[in-house]
TrEMBL record:
The protein's name in its UniProt record: Olfactory receptor 56A4-like
Keywords: Membrane, Olfaction, Sensory transduction, Transducer, Transmembrane, Transmembrane helix
Membrane topology: Multi-pass membrane protein
Subcellular location per the Swiss-Prot or TrEMBL entry: Membrane
Transmembrane regions: 7-24, 71-91, 103-122, 142-164, 184-206, 245-270, 282-305, 311-331
Pfam families: 7tm_4
Length: 336
C-alpha cells in the first residue's frame, strides 16, 4: 500500500507539472511571435523574414557527429541494465512480505526516481543516436528540464533520509522500530516530492517565459536550464541565479545533514567494544555511503565541466552523458 501511495504522489506531481508546462510554453511562443513581428516591422524591407521558433534541436556532439552510432550500443546496454535492475528490485519488494520494511521502502523510492530519470533522458538520446531525430518541442523540452531538476534533488533528499535511517539504526537501535515506521516513510516521501517539486518548478517556468528569437540549437543531449536559457535574447540573470541558489541550497543542505549523520555513526561505531560489532555496524551503511559519494562526485563533475570554458562542447557533453548513464547503472539494485 505504501508503494502505491508513493507512486500516486509522484504521478499527481508530474500531472500538475505537465499542465503548467503545456500552458506556459504556448504563452511563451506567443510572446516570441509578437516580438519577432515587432522586429520585422522595424527592419528594412530588403531583410529576409524571420520565423518564430517553435522547437529546439538537440546537438549531442557538435564536432563529432559520427560518434553517435558507436555510443548507442553501450548506452543501450546500460539503459536495459538500469531499468531491469530497478524493476526487479521493485517487484521483489512488492512480492516478498519479509521486505515490507521502512528501509526497503526507501530503496523502492530511490528505484522509482531512477526509473523516471532514466526514461526521461535515455529514449530521446537513443532516438538522436539511431534516427537523428534532433528536434524537440517546447513543452517536451521544459518538461524534461523539470524532471531532471526535481528528481535529481529528490534523489539527494532520499539519500539524506536513508542516512538518518542508518543513524537511528546504529546510534539508537532500541528506538529504531518506534521512530522509523511506515508512517515515517510516507511522511518522508511526501516531504521529498513536495520540497523538490515546489522549489524546482519555477526553473522551467522561468525558462518557458523567455523570448527565443535567435538560434534554436541546444548543444547538449538533454534540455538543461543553462543550455536552453542561453539561446534567449532576454536577460537570464534571475533565471540562472535562482537555479544556482536553489540547487546549492537543496543539495548542499542534504549533503551537510548526511555528513552530520555519518559523523555520529562513526563516533558510535568507535565506541563499540564488542569484537566484530563495529565492522558489522559499518557494513550496514557502507554501500549507502559509497552511493552518496558517487552521487556527489557525479554532480561535482557536471558542475565543473559546465563552468570550465577550456573544455570543448563535445568533450563536456560526452562526460555529462556518460556520468548520467553510469549514475543510473551504479544506483541500480546491483549496487544497493
Amino acid at each position: 500500500m505504501l508503494l502505491k501511495k508513493i507512486c500516486l504522489l509522484m504521478g499527481i506531481h508530474l500531472f500538475w507539472m505537465c499542465l503548467f508546462l503545456f500552458y506556459f510554453p504556448r504563452h511563451s511562443q506567443g510572446s516570441v511571435s509578437k516580438y519577432l513581428i515587432r522586429i520585422q516591422d522595424m527592419a528594412p524591407p530588403n531583410n529576409s523574414s524571420m520565423a518564430p521558433i517553435s522547437e529546439f534541436a538537440l546537438i549531442c556532439f557538435p564536432n563529432f557527429q559520427s560518434w553517435q552510432h558507436w555510443l548507442s550500443l553501450p548506452l543501450s546496454i546500460l539503459f536495459l541494465l538500469a531499468i531491469g535492475a530497478n524493476t526487479t528490485l521493485l517487484i521483489t519488494i512488492r512480492l516478498e512480505a519479509s521486505l515490507h520494511e521502512p528501509m526497503y521502502y526507501l530503496l523502492s523510492l530511490l528505484s522509482l526516481l531512477d526509473i523516471v530519470l532514466c526514461l526521461t533522458v535515455v529514449p530521446k538520446v537513443l532516438d538522436i543516436f539511431w534516427f537523428d531525430h534532433k528536434s524537440i518541442n517546447f513543452s517536451a523540452c521544459f518538461l524534461q528540464m523539470f524532471i531532471m531538476n526535481s528528481f535529481l534533488t529528490m534523489e539527494s533528499c532520499t539519500f539524506m533520509v536513508m542516512a538518518y535511517d542508518r543513524y537511528v539504526a546504529i546510534c539508537h537501535p532500541l528506538r529504531y522500530p518506534s521512530i522509523i515506521t511506515d508512517q515515517f516513510v510516507a511522511k518522508a516521501a511526501i516531504f521529498v516530492v513536495t520540497r523538490s517539486g515546489l522549489l524546482t518548478m519555477p526553473i522551467p517556468i522561468l525558462s518557458s517565459q523567455l523570448r527565443y528569437c535567435a538560434s534554436n540549437i541546444i548543444k547538449n543531449c538533454i534540455c538543461t536550464n543553462m543550455s536552453v536559457s542561453r539561446l534567449s535574447c532576454d536577460d537570464t540573470t534571475f533565471n540562472q541565479l535562482y537555479q544556482f541558489v536553489i540547487g546549492w541550497t537543496l543539495l548542499g543542505s542534504d549533503l551537510i545533514l548526511i555528513v552530520i549523520s555519518y559523523s555520529f555513526i562513526l563516533k558510535a561505531v568507535f565506541r563499540i567494544k564488542a569484537e566484530g560489532a563495529g565492522a558489522k555496524a559499518l557494513s550496514t551503511c557502507g554501500s549507502h555511503f559509497i552511493l552518496i559519494l558517487f552521487f556527489s562526485t557525479v554532480l561535482l563533475v557536471l558542475v565543473i565541466t559546465h563552468m570550465n570554458k577550456e573544455i570543448s562542447d563535445s568533450i563536456g557533453i560526452l562526460i555529462k552523458v556518460l556520468l548520467i548513464f553510469l549514475q543510473f547503472l551504479f544506483l541500480s539494485p546491483h549496487a544497493k
